[in-house]
């Protein structure tokens, strides 16, 4: 898995080692093709320069590192898994961006409830069989943001303030993206 564009184009993003036997990794990285689609949509609407990004359910941190590569000022990574956070730390070291990131070990719902910081880009890629999509979206909508990108396995849509937010959806393979953005 690699960074698609920008300053760190083609640089490696560390991912879980494929285990032998029956043990399956709980990390499901977003494919390069799917990330490229999302970042093409964002790039046509946003100058990444000096943006602040948060990667919820960060996994490998691909969204946050791709944002940094394209000019984001800072990326925060939130995940409850120590293994995920270790992969993110290793990639940050490899890219020499440790000063440009924050790593937060927390459940994403708890983080959103307690958070007072504002982010321009909010990425959320929960497990496909996640039970709290409605609460997650409700908490994100209580924050200020320019773009909120939610990755799901279904084409579920959520109620939102149509006077404040625009909406784009995309299917890429078996992945469905909901992109909410602040209207001018």
The CATH fourth-level homologous superfamily: Vaccinia Virus protein VP39
Q: What is the average per-residue confidence, as pLDDT, rounded to a whole number? A: 91
CATH architecture: 3-Layer(aba) Sandwich
Give a count of the beta strands, DSSP E runs of length 2 or more: 7
Describe the structure in your own words:
The chain is α/β, with parallel strands linked by helices and 184 residues long. It has a single domain (41-182), classed as Rossmann fold. Helices cover 27% and strands 23% of the residues. It is built from five helices and seven strands, in the order αβαβαβαβαβββ. The protein has helices at 32-43, 62-69, 82-95, 108-114, 133-141, and strands at 52-56, 74-79, 101-105, 121-124, 147-152, 165-172, 175-182. A seven-stranded mixed sheet has the order 3-2-1-4-5-7-6, with helices on one face. Helix 4 runs parallel beside helix 5. The longest helix has 14 residues, at 82-95. It is globular.
